[in-house]
Amino acid sequence: MIPILKEKLFLSLVKNAKHEDIQPVFISNLSPRNAARVHKYRQKKSSKVVVHKLKKEVSHHKSVNEELKKDIDSLKKTVDLFSKTLEKHDKRKEVASDIIEKKEVLNQLKSDLNNLKEIALEAKKDKDISITQWKSISKYIENLESIVHKKESDIDASMLL
After folding, report:
1. How many CB atoms lie within 10 A of CB 156?
2. How many CB atoms lie within 10 A of CB 76?
3. CB 138 within 8 A of CB 145
4. How many domains does the chain have?
5. How many CB atoms lie within 10 A of CB 14?
6. How many whole angstroms from its chain centre is CA 131?
7. Which of 34, 42, 160, 161 could form a disulfide with 30 if both were Cys (CB 3.0 to 4.6 A apart)?
8. Which of 25-61 are b and which e, b meaning 16 or more Cβ less than 10 Å from the residue's Cβ?
9. In the prediction, which pLDDT does 17 show?
10. Model confidence at 24, in pLDDT bands (50, 70, 90)?
11. Which of 153, 157, 121, 156 is nearest to 137 (CA)?
């Protein structure tokens, strides 16, 4: 075969071949001009491979980035839900502490009313107060006890909610 046709045939084979298939031995048999063309083509082919790999990596990183964004959004929603739950818990805690304080006050009122009743009974026994005064005092104490009992039942009902 004529050397020029050989080189043209070889060049067409090089263009259709993969980068790894082009052997340096064949290039050394070419004329300097065609060897330079083959070398330039090999560089171009290898840069295309690198660019293709980089594009693949970029698309992979983009998909990973999107997944991470979704995960971050999901975590933000979870944190928001958790903070709302904590707020509800804090409100319930405040309500519970208020109820406990009211219970303590009512228990103190009960003990004060019992002490008042005992003092009134002693005063009646010692004849320091008259029977009519005793009746009015005992009626007043009974009214206060009924109010305390009603408030206590209201607090117990609010604890159930």
Report:
1. 11
2. 10
3. no
4. 1
5. 21
6. 70
7. 34
8. eebeebeeebbebbeebeeebeeeeeeeeeeeeeeee
9. 57
10. low
11. 121
**Which residue do the tokens 């933000």 mark?**
76
Residue 115 lies in domain: 3-160
In order of 18, 24, 42, 124, the CA distances from 21 in angstroms are 5, 10, 11, 122
> Which is more confidently placed, 10 or 68?
68
Tokens at residue 149, please? 């009992």
Residues for the chain: how many in total? 161
Q: Are 103 and 156 within 8 A, CB to CB?
A: no
106 in Cβ contact with 151 (< 8 Å): yes
Backbone dihedral angles phi then psi of residue 154, each to the nearest 5 degrees: -60, -40
Q: pLDDT tens digit string along 89-120?
A: 988 888 888 888 988 998 899 899 889 888 88
pLDDT at 6: 61
